Amino acid sequence: xxxxxxxxxxxxxxxxxxxxxxxxxxxxxxxxxxxxxxxxxxxxxxxxxxxxxxxxxxxxxxxxxxxxxxxxxxxxxxxxxxxxxxxxxxxxxxxxxxxxxxxxxxxxxxxxxxxxxxxxxxxxxxxx
Length: 128
Known about the structure:
Shape: globular
Strand content: over 45%
Largest sheet: 7 strands, mixed
Number of strands: 11
């Protein structure tokens, strides 16, 4: 059974850093496009970052570009999201998502509907 388990969330002051991890099991991780999305109360889920199956390509939302870095370790079935210079508007539940779509263009894979596998989410709270 496919499973994604996020960890690393917490409370941090503005300007601080956090590193989220997402451990995958039960799916062909090395062939999966991996993504992070987030959702704040009262807002729709939004795309944060994606990384191709081979780490060659990555795409970021404008709001996090230059502050967040997505990476993966295929040998460990894990994807990471390093978040630096955090801002209060980054407060959200962060979700890891996976799709077995190694040949899809990255511009297509920024949409959450493309991902059949989701984690339970981890809360990130940034205080001002």
